[in-house]
## 1
Amino acid sequence: MLTDAEEALVARTVLGAVDEVVTRGAFLSTVLERALKSVPDALREAVVLRCRAFVRRWRALAELMPTGSPGDRYAGLLALEGLGPTKRSLEAAFAKWLAVEAPVVRVARHAGLPDWLAARLVEQYGAADALALATALDRDAPTCVRANRLLTTRESLCVALAEFGPQPMALATDGLVLTGGVGVFQSAPFQRGEFEVQDEGSQLVAELVAPPPKGLVLDLCAGSGGKSLALAALLKGKGRVVATDVAEHKLDELRRRARRAQAGNVQILPYAEAEALIPKADRVLLDAPCSGTGALRRNPEARHHLKASDLARFATAQAELLARTVSALRPGGRVVYATCSVLREENEDVVATVAGVDVVPPKELWGRARATALTSSDGRFLQLLPHRHGTDGFFAAVLRRRA
Ligand SMILES: C[S@@+](CC[C@H](N)C(=O)[O-])C[C@H]1O[C@@H](n2cnc3c(N)ncnc32)[C@H](O)[C@@H]1O
């Protein structure tokens, strides 16, 4: 329970941050980084969670309380989230608002999504599955970590992180879900490099790359290196993971993380030098820039920035990137094309644009028993969805260059 003074500070901070996101188009993570500096540690989680809830519920609050002041809407949010004194009339109006029959509007309202995105989900998944998917994307994501095999095991890490309530993941080999993750970055195992924070789906994409022992793997869209580090660990610190990104400044964070993880087999190269290695590589990972629709649990504000027209732009860039990579592969060489999008336009449709490759279905790498529950209905691709797998939404295709 917060005191009145704490509640007032939280409310002021949340309202200021949400105003910048919703009315001025700022990114919540950027706004929060600044705003949290003037909030005591003990109140930070409340601010972050309420900001996320506010951003998600914005559409409902704006439509149900069109003339309400920001303060009224905040009170409405507390009622809807069960955090404040209940306002029965608002709850009843909200329930009626949600009960609309038209499937697209229903999905949009339940999950606070723009209509164009709800329409695509309904078209691609059907009304019932789209509602379940959108609702799952609207929840907060659990804190997921990956035990760093270079320094520990999942079992030892489970003991070392006991105070955070670790549970072994059902799907990813080295993963733990923390039921209470607050403060985990200050923990001794983190400082010692014994784990990385990484969604279960992202861990599974790295597992699907399946580098051969001592192999050469290129990660051409490495960013801050979540998957590069997982690949380095899968290679047991041997072989080589060459990581690069067109935005080379992002690699600074990877450099720091690789040092902490003692991943001596990660080599960071300028983009052109890394790309020149494609013909020599055993595996290339293209974790392509995408709409991020699968990761809305972790970036809820992205729904306000994403436009329908962005999809075509992403798809064009993704197809170009994939074609360029495939054309440089040696015969038999493999590229793993991955996104954290749940939309066909960025996934199956992009894969369909490349010629001269065979799709390697996940069951060939993992066996039928493991792969079946994790693949698209035709079995050709890795398809992870939050309402089915509890992961962020991910897609991955393993493509082998024909001779
Ligand atoms: C999905 S993020 C990568 C996340 C990262 N692999 C991880 O696991 O943490 C996509 C990355 O692709 C990069 N990118 C954008 N356009 C690119 C291009 N044409 N070639 C290579 N990388 C690109 C972006 O800078 C971004 O870091």
## 2
Amino acid sequence: MYGSAPRRPRLLRKEKNNMNEKLILTDCDGVLLNWEYAFNIWMEGHGHMMVENGNFIYNVAKRYDLPREEGSKLVRFFNESAIQGFLPALRDAEHYVRLLANLGYKFHVITSMTKDINAQKLRTRNLKKLFGDDTFEKFIFLDTGEDKDGVLSEYEGTNHYWIEDKPTNAEVGLRFGLKSLVIEHAFNLHYEGDAPFVKNWKEIFETITGHEEKHTRWT
Ligand SMILES: [Mg+2]
């Protein structure tokens, strides 16, 4: 009685890979956006000064000499606030991300920012404003500081680039066969794992578009 809808031909694995060839997975804070800079100004505004050489410390409570719970609470509060609509781009990110987008690359953002919907909307709007409306294909928001293992496992074996500033997340990427790059900050210089460091988006751009041979540690 009802004619069955014509079946869409299944994509071969090779075709699928080709479709996704220009997909880049990226963290947001400390990679696309300068979270650290904005957070420090906000903390100073609330009377919290960074300890000497605090920029070498990842943990916020230690960085500002606060009780552990207080540090987490302030990060959560900051990440839920309207400031998320205005964080500046990190280093040269704006220029090179736009260049990659012009070459047809698409980005999936995977960020452990907050589950607060309004803050997510502000961040999405800010990212589109800085990096272009069509640059991002997907925004994946996890809770503040949440592990990314579950999300990254869905990309297992895709061989995509995965840009992070947190070494543990870069390591998770490697475990799932992703090409992890660690963007260098004072607080992650201690990292000695297998994901190569990059200093800025110029280096990421060069790595992705043609100088991949410089990094052999993935193979
Ligand atoms: Mg980050």
